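Translate sequence into structure tokens.
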Amino acid sequence: MTQPTPIRRVRVPRLLAVALTLAASGVPVLPLAADKRPAANCPACTGLACGGRPNMKQPGTCDCPRPCHGWAAGTTDLDVLASPTWAGAWQHAGAVAYHPGGTGLTVVDLDDSLAIAWARTHLPATRTVTTTRGEHWIYRGTMRSINGVKDGVDIKSAMSYARWLGPGTGTMTALPATVHALVVKQPGPARPASHAVTASAPVGGGECRHRTPTYLDRGVAMAEQRITAATSGVHATVYRTFLAVLATHGHCGCLTEAHITRLFTAAQAKGESARHCADAWSNARTALGM
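Result follows.
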């Protein structure tokens, strides 16, 4: 009688197992190194050798989907999290992080006992998670992220990440106006008016394949939908979408400033800044030799 083939059991790193569980419930996650910075997801990015900044506002020179690490790399895709590309990151990770804004949450990060005492006096009770030095107060709703809104108080939501330290205790409540008010700048000295960052359309010169304006409009509309539907990896989605639009419509010069404005508007509605949009557009043009 033929003996059955033994089942090979694959050892999954503990932190990866935690990340997979969170991702399966819809929470975008990513690995953090021991120093709490986003871990590199490929060998070329180890120690930020790729040249990218720690928060990946400036892409590096690696071949990963940009950005390959940082808050925007947070994903719910189980295949990506368990892929060989990310294997090294999980082997050396010191913690799991998640993108609060990507799951509709805001974390008020309280660094010490004084900050906690202030929150207990000024903020409504909500779910809390104990951290190394303080607490995370978690609210339903998203907003702009900013550090140092008060001594020992950081806001982590859109375009940011927070360490996963467990589900916490207490009932989560809606994001209050009190927290929104923390990021509102007080009036100061008048400054010269700033100008929005814009991007120019390709001038063309190639053969036009768009026999009707409808074809181009449909392509731009599909690109808008792709950006709007992104639930994780927003920065990378914006870059890849810009790249696809330019590859299809950019060589003949049919794209107009109005088309670009539509794409930028969709990206900014997902939390991207005008500068990020301009950088992604410029990087895509460079990648295509425009």
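Note: The first strand starts at residue 29 and ends at 32.
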